[in-house]
Design brief:
Layout: H1 7-25, H2 40-52, H3 58-68, H4 75-81, H5 85-108, E1 125-133, E2 150-159, E3 173-176
Antiparallel strand pairs: 1-2, 2-3
């Protein structure tokens, strides 16, 4: 039987399990590194909290994270970590493990949300969601002198079927735009 836990506790447990699985899946992961300012689990948790928070900007999020979730992160550390290529590689490894954990959980409970739509069996079905926010007043301009809104699109495979009918896996993704 499952015991009740807070959303923060669930996210923390899931992030840790996904990270452990990602580290175990590679012999010497080049993306693994100890960052004293903001460790990888903290970075993932902040990213997830950012997606589910009702905030207007990154700075607003950091203020809310400290006040509501008791998560403290220096402003410069958070924004620099968002641009890190190493963090992107780490997220790619962890997201595959996260997807596998959720797929296994859904399968073990017999949950198949698209089962009643057999006409989709020959198609790849993806679910996606995203958000775009206006750029901050301090955002640097690009090479062309323009500033664009920040945005992310997340997607997850609902069903992947090959022509022969065997089910294949595809990872979910978080795509900065």
């Amino acid at each position: 039987m499952y015991e009740s836990q807070t959303l923060n506790a669930f996210i923390f447990d899931h992030c840790n399990k996904s990270m452990d699985n990602a580290v175990s899946a590679e012999r010497y992961p080049l993306w693994k590194r100890a960052c004293p300012g903001l460790n990888d689990i903290g970075f993932i948790r902040l990213g997830m909290l950012r997606c589910i928070s009702l905030v207007d900007s990154g700075r607003h999020f950091l203020q809310a994270a400290e006040e509501v979730h008791e998560e403290q992160c220096p402003l410069s550390t958070y924004f620099k970590s968002l641009k890190s290529p190493r963090r992107v590689r780490m997220l790619e490894a962890v997201e595959q493990q996260s997807y596998d954990i959720y797929s296994e959980t859904l399968s073990s409970h017999g949950i198949d949300y698209l089962k009643s739509f057999p006409e989709l069996n020959d198609y790849t079905v993806l679910a996606a969601d995203g958000h775009f926010i206006d750029h901050a007043c301090h955002t640097e301009k690009g090479r062309n002198g323009k500033v664009y809104a920040a945005g992310f699109i997340g997607s997850v495979a609902m069903i992947i079927k090959s022509v022969g009918g065997s089910v294949a896996k595809i990872k979910n993704s978080l795509l900065p735009t």
